Amino acid sequence: MNIQKTIYQSIAVTTLLFTSISASAGLVYSNDFDGNEFEASGISSTLSGGNVEGVQGYSALAGFDGNFLRNSSLGNPASSTTFSFTGLGDHTSISIEGLLAVIDSWDSSENSCCSPDLLGVKVDGTLITSATFNNAIGNTNTAFGTSLTGGTSPANTYNNIGFSGWGEQAFDFSGYAPLTDIAHTASTLTVEFFAYGAGWQGGTDESYALENIAISTNGVDVPEPSTLAIFALGVLGLASRRFKNT
Ligand SMILES: [Ca+2]
Ligand SMILES: [Ca+2]
Ligand SMILES: [Ca+2]
What is the pTM of this model? Predict the structure, then answer.
């Protein structure tokens, strides 16, 4: 056996090992609710809460197509739409991307008959962000990412594009700061969307839907050069011992 060849092979194996660790970052899960559900290798996912329904007039807005996952639950808090995962590889944060449909008469957060109406997002049980929308009454309207209906219009001016007679809004929350690079390292993950607030009526009165959900991991630690060198030396040590034994 040629020891120089063995050393080169060992370095190649070391490089391959670190390449495979880095490859665990990236897209974990996506779902367009039209039968295209993606799970990364080694990931197991479960989804609960919500109904797959046609997008109705949302089909005119960029990204909405076929069906989405609508949650029209009653209660305070209303039952959540929950995505749960096991088997996540090494990572330092997660990002949640997708489209949000704000359907019918959300009543914002002012003290009226029917508010506040709030949308919360929890990661592993911790509230990450909350939002409110004024499709019907009130003045507060969260910019939950990029508005797909032209911004924060005054109350009662959104177009009615389906469901009951009230107007709708839509947002693309891909890159929305509160849902981007959320610190997270565990191999399990739970992401919950839920409506809450004393004014939440739910049902056919006010509801929401998710479309084109994508959840990814970010920021895998790259091994420091010193760690890599020690690891490589260890492999070389094994290789040279094997050489001496042959
Ligand atoms: Ca869809
Ligand atoms: Ca309400
Ligand atoms: Ca409507």
Answer: 0.80
